[in-house]
From TrEMBL:
<dbReference type="InterPro" id="IPR001753">
    <property type="entry name" value="Enoyl-CoA_hydra/iso"/>
</dbReference>
<dbReference type="InterPro" id="IPR014748">
    <property type="entry name" value="Enoyl-CoA_hydra_C"/>
</dbReference>
<dbReference type="GO" id="GO:0051750">
    <property type="term" value="F:delta(3,5)-delta(2,4)-dienoyl-CoA isomerase activity"/>
</dbReference>
<keyword id="KW-0276">Fatty acid metabolism</keyword>
<dbReference type="InterPro" id="IPR029045">
    <property type="entry name" value="ClpP/crotonase-like_dom_sf"/>
</dbReference>
<protein>
    <submittedName>
        <fullName>ClpP/crotonase</fullName>
    </submittedName>
</protein>
<keyword id="KW-0443">Lipid metabolism</keyword>
<dbReference type="GO" id="GO:0005777">
    <property type="term" value="C:peroxisome"/>
</dbReference>
<comment type="similarity">
    <text>Belongs to the enoyl-CoA hydratase/isomerase family.</text>
</comment>
<comment type="pathway">
    <text>Lipid metabolism; fatty acid beta-oxidation.</text>
</comment>
<keyword id="KW-0413">Isomerase</keyword>
<keyword id="KW-0576">Peroxisome</keyword>
<dbReference type="Pfam" id="PF00378">
    <property type="entry name" value="ECH_1"/>
</dbReference>
<dbReference type="InterPro" id="IPR045002">
    <property type="entry name" value="Ech1-like"/>
</dbReference>
<dbReference type="GO" id="GO:0006635">
    <property type="term" value="P:fatty acid beta-oxidation"/>
</dbReference>
<dbReference type="GO" id="GO:0005739">
    <property type="term" value="C:mitochondrion"/>
</dbReference>
<keyword id="KW-0007">Acetylation</keyword>
Amino acid sequence: MPPYNFSTLTVEISPAGVAHVQLNRPKALNAFSNQMWEDIHACFSQMKTDSDVRCAVVSGSGRIFTAGLDLKDAVQNPTFSGKHDESADVARKGYYHRFHIHHWQDCLSAMERCDKPVIAAVHNACFGAGVDFITGCDIRLATEDAYFCVKEVDIGMAADVGTLQRLPKVVGNDSWVREVCYTARQVPAKEALAVGLISGVYKTKEEMVKAALVMAETIASKSPVAVVSTKHLLNHARDHTVQEGLEYTALWNALAHNSKDMGVAMMASLQKQKATFPKL
């Protein structure tokens, strides 16, 4: 695979198959610039077919996880600002602006489509687009000082790249979701844990990242066929009926059951030994 060289992200891949991805715009508080959207899309699209990666951890460099959308950078985008054609009417501007929104949606959906589990490790602030980002991840951890804010109503818009679609399914409390999305209030880590937005709280960033990497190594030690199948089927089940999910699982596993991993796992279990699985 080509190297993971990005201007807004740093990527380190361990021998165990764990990729540690860091949002790397600390001076800009890891705000989502036009380039960061592209880098996130490229990074996780590449990981999907990289057999050296079995699980990923995403953290933020510097003082906070992310300040959300980089507004100064966003308005420089011709499509976003409407500067692509000053003579166009509202309908024509809107038609092309829709493609821009679709593209940003596609960038953050890259984590969900990656097939390899993605663990978000959030410290301090996670604003706006950051919530869109982490709800596209599989597992979310946070520090005690972390807080979350669906900020979009404060800049005169509805969140449009994933929060309003994924947060209700992540949390399962419609009243709470509507409250935080309508008010843009800050949600502390303790509350986020109580409603299920995150699954673990840690005292320091270092402790959290270490725990996330250990968790990722545990996932990476499992059969890669089993792990990617599980993520794929969980995502499918979330968006379909139970019966549709069962039917699709039967088709998927009719193929997946033919891997050598099941035999390796069963033999290791019988012999009380640790199983070692080949790359995907």
